[in-house]
Design goal:
36% of the residues lie in helices and 21% in strands. It is an alpha/beta fold and 229 residues long. It has a single domain (2-227), classed as Alpha/Beta hydrolase fold, catalytic domain (Rossmann fold), CATH 3.40.50.1820. Strand 3, helix 1 (41-52) and strand 4 (56-60) form a beta-alpha-beta unit. The two termini are 24 Å apart.
Length: 229
């Protein structure tokens, strides 16, 4: 359904991204930001799902500045490798990977000739939160269990576009006190809680919770339909 394209960031860095087009009219665009496992089969399936909903979907490979062509599974070894790559990317100077997300947003805006939203999962949830504050051209942002967005320094960021967040009540990575602190700090950001664990949206992980994933997607699509129309 999709294809790989090349994007060029403002600093000249070239990066790949997976793109999926809707069959009918394009109603806007959604930038899909990966977990720590790369633009793998799951992320491509997520992008395909947004395309089926009528959006031009693009998933930039946010590990490329550290390592190209990352496509991991969900074993403990894969998690360790993904975490190391995440730390390498977060250690980059300046805007780092935010430039690659900006390149994806700019491309999606021109290609769709419409508004652009961003959605991210796990580490991608944190990058979505950062993008809402730092990336230009976004009209909506949806963060799924973004590790790090409920604590310093990311909690101090202020989104420039309408934003919502999905969190899991059984998440041992993102604790209830930090979620409460986030809600207090950002009272204008709707926060939805689910009786599930971290990673509940991914049907390739043991933490997958179909009921929560379906409800979160329903809320996400309603949010995008409102702000990307």
């Amino acid at each position: 359904m999709g294809q790989m394209i090349e994007l060029t960031a403002a600093d000249g860095f070239k990066n790949e991204a997976y793109v999926a087009y809707p069959k009918g009219n394009i109603r806007g665009a959604v930038v899909v930001i990966q977990e720590i496992f790369g633009v793998n089969a799951h992320i491509k399936a997520v992008a395909n799902g947004y395309a089926l909903a009528g959006y031009l979907a693009i998933a930039p490979a946010t590990f490329t500045r550290a390592k190209a062509d990352v496509d991991l599974g969900y074993t403990p070894e894969d998690m360790k490798a993904g975490f190391e790559l995440k730390m390498a990317i977060e250690g980059l100077p300046g805007l780092g990977v935010v430039q690659d997300i900006q390149a994806a947003v700019t491309w999606a805006q021109a290609e769709s000739k419409g508004k652009v939203g961003v959605v991210g999962y796990c580490w991608g949830g944190l990058l979505t939160w950062k993008s809402a504050a730092l990336v230009n051209g976004l009209s909506a942002a949806v963060a799924y269990y973004g590790g790090g967005m409920t604590v310093e320094p990311a909690i101090e960021l202020t989104p420039k576009c309408p934003t919502i967040a999905h969190f899991a009540e059984k998440d041992h990575w993102i604790t209830p006190p930090t979620i409460e602190a986030f809600k207090h700090k950002h009272a204008d950001v709707p926060v939805y809680m689910y009786d599930a664990d971290h990673g509940f949206n991914c049907d390739m992980r043991g933490a997958y919770h179909e009921e929560s994933a379906n409800l979160a997607l329903e809320r996400t699509l309603a949010f995008f339909n409102t702000h990307l129309a």
